[in-house]
């Protein structure tokens, strides 16, 4: 899934009736994050604090090259 990814070149096709459901907005991410399943989020390390404030419980699973892999549940 792409968080707030409807920008630039892919915006036009992302709104087509047969486009795959791979885009999620902030509200959708919050719903998924607080749901029953495990959710993984790869993002830039500088966004980790902001995402933790917005989403609540955030667990860092890995970090490299200025990026982090976060999850909503402990492994």
Q: Which word captures the global form?
A: globular
| Spatial strand order of the main sheet | 3-5-4
The secondary-structure element order is EHEHEHEE
From the alpha carbons, calculate the radius of gyration and give it in angstroms.
13 Å
Number of domains: 1
Strand content: 25-35%
Q: Write down how many β-strands occur, each being a DSSP E stretch of 2 or more residues.
A: 5
Alpha carbon gap, first and last residue? 20 Å
Q: What quaternary form is this? A: single chain
Short description:
The chain has 75 residues and is α+β, with helices and mostly antiparallel strands.
Describe this structure as you would to a colleague.
- The chain has 75 residues and is α+β, with helices and mostly antiparallel strands.
- The protein has one domain (2-71).
- The protein contains 3 helices and 5 strands, in the order E-H-E-H-E-H-E-E.
- The strands form 2 sheets. The chain has a 3-stranded antiparallel beta sheet with strand order 3-5-4, with no helix packed on it.
- The chain starts with a strand and ends with a strand.
